[in-house]
Amino acid sequence: MKQQTTAVKLASSSIESYTKLKPSSSNEATLTFGPYKDVQPFSSSKMDIHFENNQPFLTVNQMTRWLEVSHWGNVAVEESYHMTHSGATLKGHFSRYDYQRSPVHAAIKSFKTVLPASAKDVYYRDEIGNISTSNMNNQDDSVELEIRPRFPLFGGWQTRYYMGYNVPTFEYLFNRGDKYILNMRLVDHIFDDFVVDHLEVKVVLPEGARDIQVSSPFAVSQAPQELHKTYLDTTGRPVVVLKKNNVVDSHIQDFQVQYTFKKVLLLQEPFLCIAAFYILFITVIGIVRLDFSIAKDAAQESKLKIASLLDDLRYAVDQRSSVYAAFDNAIDKFKSSKDSTAFANTMKKNQADYTNVCSKIDALGANLLKEDPDTSEKLVDLKKKETERKANLEQLVTLATKVVSGKITRQQFSDGEASTKTKKEKIEDEIDALVASF
């Protein structure tokens, strides 16, 4: 060789040492060896260069991209990552205090992933759960997702996480009759100048898809198809598995999956839901109508009937208390408005409600007495207490009528009302205790 010159461009200008084979020179981040003249054939000299490079170098060791196609209008995308900072490894222990004081530039704090513009329902999680420090920015032609790991990545450190989103089917799935073609990217923009050592893409097609063919703008290896079973599936969904090593930015290109799918199969899932609910309802109807007892248990039936009657009785007593509250409201309103006609109409309506609920209580008491004669004494006491309670109400009505007409003074009314209400409240407490003791 007559003449040879070798130029080496380094990542930084911090050069510790290099082989100084004359003539050689350095100019910032560039080393120049030569020119060497009349070099003998097959001769060689070792070149050693030691320089400092603190630039981060993030590598995706393993990436799995999951594309689930639905003919109901959605394509679900989920990507799982195993990443390693392949740059200069961190020596010694890590101190977050020292890191906060003087952050090391070689540490990777965050990076940006670019998603399709129609991406929605984006999530970013790791083994612990959702990582809320991530940020998403919607652009006109893309969605930028700033991914920030839970801890800064130093040289030799690694992280695992998964990220997913949904895109509408009409942008990526096209058909003519029963022939469909899915046109999507093999990989999205993960971060600037990314490198993926091992990429695996799994495309989950609808159940019933057949005649599956894959075409790619570059060479990919296709593994045997798999089956993925999920809700409302019978035989399972076919899964196309594609693999490729050493994936870089230039591989962000579209690939196609062609298949045949009969539209009538779209009715399979609705019919399965209808059939499942139909079987469930028929089963429940059959079970509730069956009697699995060998002989009827009269005592148990009587207990259940008594319990039901007592529940109805307590509810009816509560209704009667509500009617008494309506009586009290009418009396208070009458004292302020002094409208006798309106008061009479209101009392008439309340009396009708009172009569109805009392009739209901009497009927329940009669039925309860037939089932459980031991309750007769309590029922008699309840009726007696109710008579006293009604008498107190009538006394309050009389007092209100007299004070409005001017037959008694305000002081006389207040004294009489206080005494009567005290008796009424005592009777109500006794009624509540009596009903609770049934």
Give helix % range. 25-40%
Poorly predicted runs of 5 or more residues: none
N- and C-termini, Cα separation: 116 Å
CATH architecture title of the largest domain? Sandwich
**CATH first level of the largest domain:** Mainly Beta
Largest sheet: 7 strands, mixed
Whole-angstrom Rg = 43 Å
CATH superfamily of the largest domain: tricorn interacting facor f3 domain
Please report the number of helical segments. Answer: 6
List the domain count as a whole number: 3
With strands numbered from the N-terminus, the spatial order across the biggest sheet is 9-12-7-6-15-18-17
Q: Which topology of the largest domain does CATH recognise?
A: Immunoglobulin-like
Number of beta strands: 19
Strand content: 25-35%
Mean pLDDT: 87
Mind sketching the topology for me?
Layout: E1 3-9, E2 15-18, E3 24-27, E4 30-37, E5 49-51, E6 58-70, E7 74-85, H1 96-101, E8 111-116, E9 120-125, E10 135-138, E11 142-147, E12 158-168, E13 173-176, E14 179-185, E15 196-204, E16 210-215, E17 221-228, E18 237-247, E19 254-260, H2 268-289, H3 298-337, H4 340-371, H5 376-405, H6 410-436
Parallel strand pairs: 6-15
Antiparallel strand pairs: 1-4, 2-5, 3-4, 6-7, 7-12, 8-11, 9-12, 10-11, 13-14, 14-19, 15-18, 16-19, 17-18
Short description:
The chain is of the alpha+beta class and 438 residues long.
